[in-house]
Amino acid sequence: MPSYANNHGTVAANMYNAGIQSLVDLGNRYSDNESIGGLVAGSLADSFRTQAATGQALAYNDAFLGSMANYQGGMENLRTGNTMTLMAAEGEIATNLMDTQGGWQIRGIQTTGDQQRQGIQTTGAQSRQGMQTQGRQDRLGIETTGVESRRGMQTQGRQDRLGIGTTGAQNRLGIQETGAQQRLGIQETGAQQRLGIQETGAQSRLGMQTQGQQNRLGIKETGAQQRLGIQETGAQQRLGIQATGTQQRLGIQATGAQQRLGLQTAGSEERKNISSRMTQELRARADARGAVTRAGSRFYG
User: Fold this and answer.
1) H or E stretch covering 301
2) DSSP run (H or E) holding 87
3) How many whole angstroms separate alpha carbon 38 and alpha carbon 27?
4) Per residue in 17-44, pLDDT tens?
C-alpha cells in the first residue's frame, strides 16, 4: 500500500499521503478486524475513484480549453491580419491623398508665380513704352516750341528792320522835301541827322540780332537739359522696375520652396505616426496573446 502515496511536495499531496498512510496503518494494525479492513478498503477505493474522475475531468477540460484556445487564437490572428490589412490600406490611401494634394498645391504655386511674373513683365514693358513715348512727345514739343520761337523772333526782327528802314526813308524824304526850301541852312543839320539816324538804326539792328542769338542759345540749352533729365528719370524708373520684379520673383520662389518643405515634413511625420501606431498595436496584441498563454500555462501546470 505505500505505493499508492503521491510523492509531490505540495501541501495537498502531503496531506493526501498522510491520510492514505493513516488508513494503511489502521488496516495493518487491525488486520483481523473485517469491519476496519472493509472501511479502509472502501475509503481507498473511493479515493481511487475520485482520482480517476478528477483525471477524466482534467482531460476533458484540457481538451475543451485547448480547442477554445485554438479557436480564439485563430480568431485573434484573423482579426490582427484584417486590422493590419486595413491599416496598411488606410496608410496607402492617406499617402496617396497627401502626395496628390501636395502635387496640386505645388502646381498652383507654380502657376501663380508664372502669372505674377508675366504680369510684372507686361506692366514693366508698358511702363517703359509709356515713358519712352512721353519722352519723345516732350522732346518734339520742346523742339517745336524752340523752332516756333526762333521763327517768331526772326519775323519780328525783319519787321522791325523793315519798319525802321521805311521810317528812315520817309524821314529822309520829308527832310529832303522840307530842306529843298531851306537847303542852305539845313544841309549841315540834315547830314548830321542822317548820320545819327543811321548809327541809331545800326545799333538797334545789332542789339536785336544779339538778343535773338542769346534767346536761341538759351532755348537750345534748356531743351538739352530737359532731354537729359527725362532720359535720366526713365533710366532710374526702368532700374527700379527691374529690381522690384527680381525681388518679387525671389520672394515667390522662396515661398514655394518653404511650402513644399512643409508639405514633405507633414507627410513624413504622418507616415511615422501611422507606423508607430501600428507597431504599438502589434506589440499590445502580442503582449495579450503572451498573457493568455501564460495564464493557460499556470492553469494547466
Assistant:
1) none
2) helix 34-181
3) 9
4) 888 999 899 989 998 998 998 999 999 9
